[in-house]
Amino acid sequence: MVNLKNISVSYQRGVNALKDVSLSIDKGEFVAIVGLSGSGKSTLLRSINYLTPPTNGEVCIDGVKLSSLSKRKLKNTRAKIGFIFQDYNLVDNSSVFNNVLLGRLAYTNTFSSLLGLFSSSDYNLAEKNICNVGLKDKMFQRVDRLSGGQKQRVSIARALTQNPNIILADEPVSSLDIATAESVMDYLLKFNHKRQITVIINLHDIRLAKKYASRIVGLKDGKIVFDDKPTKLTDSILNEVYY
Ligand SMILES: Nc1ncnc2c1ncn2[C@@H]1O[C@H](COP(=O)(O)OP(=O)(O)OP(=O)(O)O)[C@@H](O)[C@H]1O
């Protein structure tokens, strides 16, 4: 369903962040991307939903080339791809409920979204997903009063409210302590299993990658140097990825 065909990304001043990367990810996989800082993990994730369109190569989602899509169709495709950021990307002075409702923005036209018009099914979906991440009692609390783990659960609920086929998560637990990080990862794994949502996640914690992912992709200098089951990621391969 996600197919990267020979993609390269070059930034200004000659930085080649990805070099001829090809990668196919099937529905329902839980893929962790690992590698040194600067190896291209964020760029890879952002190219999948065209936040950073590749300089060369093609990104295909369900067989459709993103480069061939009109603005409107690209918006529709992106609506089915949730994105979870390391720093949560929430509206701090707004409630949990309003933040989660923003997941429906991908489906509303500009006029409705400017007026904040949502349907009753949008409200119901937001409420259901807040309950699904265990935040029912915080529903109308401002998000800046929440802990880091709770904030990241709000971002998961917001992504779920898009009814996504894919969730992209860029270092979502790196600011959290180990126990909290695992509880956030548990939620991602739960929705991966229960809803068959494909999860593609950047992680610098190899232990978490091995514990949760069904497949690990190692990036080094913008190239894939490992792509296999977690059990195949031996210490000597790790040394190579992180050298
Ligand atoms: N907007 C940008 N403009 C120019 N160079 C960039 C930009 N974004 C990233 N880069 C460069 O591209 C390379 C890959 O960066 P990227 O953020 O994808 O790596 P990463 O593995 O996610 O690193 P980190 O774990 O530190 O976030 C790095 O050399 C980085 O400095």
UniProtKB/TrEMBL annotation:
Q: Does the keyword DNA-binding apply?
A: no
List keywords of the entry alphabetically: ATP-binding, Cell membrane, Membrane, Nucleotide-binding, Phosphonate transport, Translocase, Transport
Checking SUPFAM superfamilies in the record gives: P-loop containing nucleoside triphosphate hydrolases
Q: Which Pfam families match?
A: ABC_tran
- Cellular component GO terms, alphabetically? membrane
Superkingdom of origin organism:
Bacteria
Question: Could you tell me which SMART domains the record lists for this protein?
Answer: AAA
Q: What is this protein called?
A: Phosphonate ABC transporter ATP-binding protein
| Source species of the chain | Proteinivorax tanatarense
Upper lineage: Bacteria, Bacillati, Bacillota, Clostridia, Eubacteriales
